[in-house]
Amino acid sequence: MASAAAQMDVRPVMRIVPRGGLCDQCEVRGTAACAVLDDHDLSRLEAIATHKEYEAGQTVFDEGDDPRHMFNVTSGMIRLFKLLPNGRRQIVGFVFPGDMLGLATHGTYTCSAEAIGSVTVCRFPREKLIVLLDEFPHLQGRLLDMAADELKQAQDQMLLLGRKSPMEKVASFLLRLRGEHDQCNENGDRLDLAMGRGDIADYLGLTIETVSRTFTKLRNENVIALEGAHHVIITDEDALEDLADAMGD
Amino acid sequence: MASAAAQMDVRPVMRIVPRGGLCDQCEVRGTAACAVLDDHDLSRLEAIATHKEYEAGQTVFDEGDDPRHMFNVTSGMIRLFKLLPNGRRQIVGFVFPGDMLGLATHGTYTCSAEAIGSVTVCRFPREKLIVLLDEFPHLQGRLLDMAADELKQAQDQMLLLGRKSPMEKVASFLLRLRGEHDQCNENGDRLDLAMGRGDIADYLGLTIETVSRTFTKLRNENVIALEGAHHVIITDEDALEDLADAMGD
DNA sequence: CGCTCATTTGACGCATGTCAACGCGCGTGG
DNA sequence: CCACGCGCGTTGACATGCGTCAAATGAGCG
C-alpha cells in the first residue's frame, strides 16, 4: 500500500532501492528532512540510522550535553525546555512527528528534551552525519532552510511572550497547533493536545491557572469546545483569529 | 600559501590580493563571517559587495520584504523587531558591528530592521551570494553554525521573556551587553548603550517606566553607576550576576 | 540660552500570579 | 465490578507587581 501514493503533486514518494530498508515505510517519509533525498542518498542515510523509543517523561538529552545524535521524530511529541536555577521552566518548542531535532546545534545542546508521551525516533550519529553532509551539499542547504524556519518560529514566540496578553497567547497557540495539525493528525477542527496544562503554561509564559481560566473563558464564549482537557474543537475560527492579535484595546 | 601569517593560532589576518580592495581594511575583518575566508575567496566576495549607510531611525528592510540582500554591519547598530496590529513592538534582536544580517532567511524577511544610530553596512546581493555558496562549501557550514548561534540566543531570550522578573531581565541584559562589548567597544566595565529605554523595554518585554525604575534601583543599590542615560558602569558584577537569575525568589 | 524630546518619578488600579480547596478521570487493586 | 487514591485540571479568594496615566526633571542640540 505504500506505493499508490504517487499521485500527490507536492512530494512524490519515490521507490526506495530494494534493500528491505525502513525509510520507505517511514510514516514521516514525505515530510521529514529526508524528503529531499533521492533513493540512493536515502539508502546511505539509512545505513547510519538507528531507532529508539522513549516513554512518557523520559529524557532524550539534557542542556549542555555533548550532541552525539541528531533525531528525526517518527511518532509522538517532544518538549524542548530550559530551566532557571530556582526551578522555573520555559518550554522553547515542541517537536512534532517528522521534525528534525538537534540539527542546528553548535557546541552543546542548548536546551533539554523530554518525551511528552511515547515517542519513537530515528537517530543519526552526529559525526557520521557530518561526513555525509559533505557529500550531499543540497542537504546542507536544506538544513540551513530548516534552521531559518526554526528561527522564524522563535521570533514569533518572542513576540508572543513579550507582547501578547494571556488570551492572545492561548488563541495564537491553538491556531498554531491547528496549522501543524494538517501534517500530523486528526480531521475537522478537532485538535488533540498531547501536552498538559503545565506544558502549555511553560510554553506561553503563564501559570497553569491562567491557562485553565483562559480555556474556560474561550469555552464560555463559544469559541472552542472542550472534550476532556486534551481535546479542543475550534467552533468559531474567526473569533479565535481576532483574539490572537487583538487590534484594539 | 597566500601569506606567511600562519603563526597566529586563531585567526591570522592575511594580506589581501593587491587590488585596492576594501575588505582588508574593514574594521570587522577579524570577527565577521568573512573571517573564515582566505584571500582568494574574499576577493570573490568583495567583488559582489556594495556599501551603504543609514542614518538614525532609517529602515533597512521591512518584515515581509523579499530578501534581496544579506548584510554585514561594519559600524553602528541595528534593531530587529516585529509589530502587532495595534502598534505593540517586540525587538527580537540587536545587530552589532561584525554581525551578519539576513543570512538565515527562508522566504521573506521575518522581521523589520532599523538603524539605531548611524550605520554602515557591507551588502551582498542574495542571488550572487547563493552562487558563491556553492563554490565555498565551508562558508555554508559556517552559516549553519551562525544560524545555530542565533537560535541559541533566541532560546535564551524566550527564557528571559517568559520566566524572568523585570530585575532579572535588566540584569541579564546588561551582562549580555558586557559580553558583546569585548568585541565591539570601550574598556573597563563601562558600557555604552546605543539604544534608548524604549528599545530596551521592547526587547525585554517591559514598559519604559519599568526599565527606568529598574535602572534606578540598581543604581541605588550600588550595583551600577549611570553617567547619563546611555552609559552604564558595572560596579558590582557579582551582585549583578546574582540578580540575573536569582536562585531563591 | 532655550527648546524639545527622552528619561525619571509619582500615584493609582487592574490583571495576573499566588495560595488553597475542590472535582474529575483514570488506573489500580481488592 | 466497584472502591479507592492519586494526579491533573478547574475554580475561587486574595494580594501585589507591573502597567497606565500624568507630571516633573534632565540632557542634548541648535
What topology emerges from the helices and strands here?
Two copies of one chain form a homodimer.
Chain A: H1 39-47, E1 50-54, E2 59-61, E3 69-75, E4 78-83, E5 89-95, E6 100-101, E7 112-115, E8 119-125, H2 126-135, H3 137-163, H4 166-184, E9 190-192, H5 197-204, H6 208-220, E10 224-226, E11 231-234, H7 237-244
Antiparallel strand pairs in A: 1-8, 2-7, 3-6, 3-8, 4-5, 4-7, 9-11, 10-11
Chain A binds a DNA duplex (30 and 30 nucleotides) through helix 6.
Describe the structure.
Two copies of one chain form a homodimer. Chain A is α+β, with helices and mostly antiparallel strands. Chain A folds into two domains: 49-157, Jelly Rolls (Sandwich); 165-244, Winged helix-like DNA-binding domain superfamily/Winged helix DNA-binding domain (Arc Repressor Mutant, subunit A, Orthogonal Bundle), CATH 1.10.10. In chain A, 38% of the residues lie in helices and 20% in strands. Chain A is built from seven helices and eleven strands. Chain A has helices spanning 39-47, 126-135, 137-163, 166-184, 197-204, 208-220, 237-244; strands spanning 50-54, 59-61, 69-75, 78-83, 89-95, 100-101, 112-115, 119-125, 190-192, 224-226, 231-234. The first copy, chain A, has a four-stranded antiparallel beta sheet with strand order 1-8-3-6. Chain A has a four-stranded antiparallel beta sheet with strand order 2-7-4-5. Chain A has a three-stranded antiparallel beta sheet with strand order 9-11-10. In chain A, helix 4 crosses helix 7. The longest helix of chain A has 27 residues, at 137-163. Chain A is globular, with a radius of gyration of 19 Å. The first copy, chain A, starts with 38 loop residues before the first helix and ends in a 5-residue tail after the last helix. Mean pLDDT of chain A is 85; it is low at 1-20. Chains A and B meet through strand 5 and helix 3 of A and strand 5 and helix 3 of B. The structure holds a DNA duplex (30 and 30 nucleotides).
